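anyone else get weird line breaks when pasting these?? whatever heres mine. first is seq + tokens for prot A
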Amino acid sequence: MSYPSDPRVGEVRKRLAAAREASATPTPKAAEKLAGQNKLYVRDRIALLFDEGSFVEDGRYANAMAEGLPADGVVTGRGLVDGRPAIVVANDPTVKAGSWGARTVEKIVRATEAALREELPVFWFVDSAGARITDQVDLFPGRRGAGRIFHNQVALSGRVPQICCLFGPSAAGGAYIPSFTDCVIMVEGNASMYLGSPRMAEMVVGEKVSLEEMGGARMHCTVSGCGDLLAEDDADAIEQARLLFSYLPSSWRDKPPSYAPDSPSSRLDDTVVPEVESQPFDIHDVIDGIVDEDSFFEVKPLFAAELVTGFGRIDGESVGVVANNSMVKGGVLFADSADKAARFIWWCDAFNVPLVYLADVPGFMIGSEVERGGIIRHGAKMVSAVSEATVPQVSVVVRKAYGAGLYAMAGPGFAPDACIALPTARIAVMGPDAAVNAVYANKIAAIADEDERAQFVADRRREYEEDVDLERLVADLVLDGVVEPEDLREELRQRLLYAAGRDRSFTSRRRGIPPV
């Protein structure tokens, strides 16, 4: 049976088809520009993120009645990442440089509201010049203005994973979107974050600086710490984001996904850790001997490298690793490394990832420069994170753990599920040389004979070392055990398995007041 047609419906279909086509592919000029920048089109980026055929888009016709604003410059919707549902918010840099209009902001607010309502992870694909000044009244100050995006991101923090791939600029207020996510992956050569552009800096404060120096990817991943990982190109950034997601649950209520167990890539034995505490070595060699082969995913590898943080798997199960690296600055803790550790510990604790600490730390850095930089409050931040963490935790004293370094690496006083040691371990308020000098400095200076002075120092050092002897520490139950390197992985596997049902409460209160 046929019905009469309505020309108005045909016209609507025609206009909607044109609007859909406008956002399906870039214009030839835009495509040429993307190719010149070694960038992918926004929909190609999304296709790399989600399982094939799983993406459902929201708000595709936003601002369809305006010329040159397909989808209003942002693509939002849901899809599956390795079979798990997630939300994407992806700027389209071919639409007015990915800038925000009123409909752009509304789409992003709605996406974050859906993430809150449904507790879905959010992937942020950022490539935006910031707000359109011409639309500022409509998008900036109101209750559903741009500020609501940040508010919702904070509400999502620790509730669902938020992973950011930064493909291009993230300018002005928009730079805060990456900062509120759990991890920022920046494409080298293209990605940048800055509150004020180089041109604005020159106008306002008289500083002449390049974009790379001001807010480039490598700067942020090595100096400021605002970036977590560098990527070669768009595809590499998305691959890293998918891989990172594999270590995390979909929300705070879930456990991380399990994978097939695998053996470590190398054997951990007594040749890996030097017995002489002053001899540096790469802690990655210990990590490789503990986690499943090729499973270690390091976070912030270029920032504060004296401390290593990252995700791995032991027998197919996710773990977070916090480890001192004596190959870099002797493994001493600085303000940046304390910040790096605190944030990673909070991250793991939020998403039910057990923690393994590998301690080889002489303590926190001293001196007027670091004191003026607030190392006490930064160190307190790390100690606070260790104290508050309620996931299963095992602290391993690999070699030295001196002073507050022992505390910062989840020493016995912080109630880890176990604090164990390798035979190379030493625990003390400070190293023997520093301790002898601190206690006997005046007496040492008073001994004129060089040989007699050397003998006095050696005797006092021996007494000090006997006082903190490893056997005494296990005999007095300071430590829960001493294991050989080749047995460490299995010891960790069993202890984390048995601790899986531990109480996840810390204390009753409205909230803590962390050091800043």
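and prot B, same format (seq, then tokens)
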Amino acid sequence: MTSFDAIVIGAGHNGLAAATRLAKGGRRVLVLEAANEPGGATRGRELAPGFRSAGLAHLVNRLDVEVARDIGLDLKGDETLLPTTVLDGSGTAITLHGAYGEQLDGVSAEEAAAFAALRRKLIFQAGILKRFLRRPPPQIGAISLGDLSALAGAGVGLLRKGRSEGRDFLRMLLTNVADVTDEYLADDRLKGLLAFDATLGIHLGPRSPTSLLGLYYRLTGDVAGRTGGQFVPAGGMASLAPAFRRAAEKAGVTIRCGTPVGRILADRGRASGVVTGDGTEITAPVVVSAIHPQTTFLHLVDPAESGTGFVRSVRNVRSHGNVAKLDLALDRVPDFTGLAANARAGRIVLVRSKEQVETAFNPAKYGEFSTDPVMEITLPSLADPSLAPAGGCTLSALVQYAPYRLKAGWETGKPAFLRIVLETLERHAPGIGKSIVASSLMTPVDIEAEYNLPGGHWHHGELQADQLLVNRPTGAASGYRTPIDGLYLASAGAHPGGGISGLPGWNAARHILSGASS
């Protein structure tokens, strides 16, 4: 078949969510994926014989429950939320249990109470922003009744809390996470964790203005209705892509892998289909791009169709990653000093303080990597034993800060950075170096090449105030629609942003099915 009602470019989880929603709405949908299997950045790869990486993502903390229910995602494992353990190298640990620290181990009663108060405030304030996640962002100059309802609901939510809470929200909204943690907390390890979580994957430090937005964004996610929760699906992260694929195929979606798109057909401002890499023309009145907006408009669309001003705005989207992804194949499960055995399956964060995070960020501003990196670690093979042979283990780490544009170049910088990262791990898990069978460090440049992500940024663009809501990815394409009729955006580069939520794809599909003007 060379004619469909809709063509979706990209079989990442957002592309499959969009395709499934469109198919359930009665459309004949084709998904085209350049790679040989679906999954996008959740695709794994072999590290060494018998060892596999689970892909870029190693935890789920914002999969939208309504998206999962609507598309029929048969994913298990969110009943048990995983803990987060903070290790600072002292041999003592803080462990956050439940949904983002509903209970704490390793701090005084006074500090636990202070964290609980801050947690309540942050979750309330993030909840104000959460009201806008399941809908297109308000369009400047074209506010709809739905937009007014969402805005009114946010306002009422603030009023119910009283004037002081309203003032506090407006005060904190654009502040930095370092100042907020200083207001509430005394323990450097807790401050460091919040600073890390607020800036992970974002080119900001804890003292950068607006850095608190990153923590708000994290806390707009929930698991099984519990804000800030995190889990790994039954069968591990490798089970995510097959689950989205099953949902799509059950809805009647046609998926073709190993089929890159060479060009989006558009004439006089109207999309009409695509041409694949081998020259095959496939027509459809609706084309949904679930890949990076810069790839879409700088490589697949004739610039004359979207206009030079729009193309310039897309080119100026900041999308340079600053996180490296480390995968290790180990011959045994590592022992981290201070880590309880029952917390091994959770998230491990190596951070001493917010000052360490800030100091780690400083070199990145000038194109250098941190010599004292902070990182988030999981042991994926504990959830999915197929990733390692019997007795072995895999380790996955997200390492801050590793700028895309390294001044010295990653060809020479990568071995030096890997050495620093492994030395850091050795301090926290003595003997881990001797158990390494194979290692793979993916810099943002490697991530760009492996997953076709411009700049190696997994959010498809910075999650900062000027690139969110009405400006994501740019003002002229913020509501999933684009200047080309019939062409829509549905990747993490669209509202509300990155993470495994399914919301950009699902929202885009609902917008198309609503018949809203493109």
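btw re prot B: The chain has a mean pLDDT of 93. Residues 196 and 357 are 6 Å apart (CA to CA).
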